[in-house]
Amino acid sequence: MIANILSIAGSDPSGGAGIQADLKTFAARGTYGMAVITALTAQNTQGVSGVHLVPASFVADQIRAVFADIRVDAVKIGMIATAEIAEAVADALTKHGEGVPVVVDPVMVAKGGASLLAADAVEALNRRLLPLATLITPNLPEAAALLGEAEAGDRDTMAHQAERLLALGPRAVLIKGGHLPSNESPDVLAASGRLTWLEGRRSATRNTHGTGCTLSSAIAAELGKGLDPLQAVTEAKGYIAAAIARAEELSVGAGHGPVHH
Ligand code: PLP
């Protein structure tokens, strides 16, 4: 049976990040994609020029409508924008989504620096959404913000922060090391009582728009197919590496281009 995967995230009209990236990823991974929209952004490959929020109650209405009719095999949560939307998403998933794997990508800042999460929403994200998560996928600045600590600059600190994030309630934590001050880009997965390092090299590319969205969506798709977190992350990392390599075939915008699904 084909897995049904739901993204709860913001829209990127340029098609590189947000729900547009999520839906392309779900299709490319052989799953059926669905999308609940939390916010519209006005943006292109060069940056975000506006954000228009969907009322939190209407985000909940969208989630309710999907779950009332459709079997959902996994959920990916991306841009949640505000504390009110975080609360509404948590309430709706607690009510309708019991037992469904949830990947939380704690989206905070767009590549160009625009804020995609209100400052007071980090607390709601921690308190309401992390405990619902099967896996969270912060990068180094996001892990630091969730913990209220300085950003990790080495592997030991990444490992400690992964353990500390686990204590906030998610079943597994993937910290992405792409911001480390070296040519290496190791990710660390804390799951099932152990730490696993997934080695990577930083690719020399400007085509990084939507890479976080794509990775978390690919993980959700694989969890929805029934893989465990380590298998799902391994598959998803292979997929994003190939999508970055294929981005050279695209000609989309003058800024940080999207990956090719
Ligand atoms: N979600 C939305 C709606 C966005 O616009 C962005 C970035 O612009 C992101 C998520 C995060 O993007 P990335 O995958 O590049 O971290």
TrEMBL record:
Entry superkingdom: Bacteria
Please state every residue range assigned to the domain named Pyridoxamine kinase/Phosphomethylpyrimidine kinase: 12-260
Biological process per Gene Ontology, one example term: thiamine biosynthetic process
Q: One GO molecular-function annotation for this sequence?
A: ATP binding
Q: Which UniProt keywords apply?
A: ATP-binding, Kinase, Nucleotide-binding, Transferase
EC number annotated for this UniProt entry: 2.7.1.49
Q: Does the keyword ATP-binding apply?
A: yes
- What general EC class does the enzyme of this chain belong to? transferase
Q: Is Nucleotide-binding tagged as a keyword?
A: yes
Query: InterPro entries under this entry?
Result: HMP/HMP-P_kinase_dom, PM/HMP-P_kinase-1, Ribokinase-like
- Gene Ontology CC annotation, any one: cytosol
The pathway it acts in is:
Cofactor biosynthesis; thiamine diphosphate biosynthesis
Protein name (database record) = hydroxymethylpyrimidine kinase
Q: Which organism is it from?
A: Pseudorhizobium pelagicum
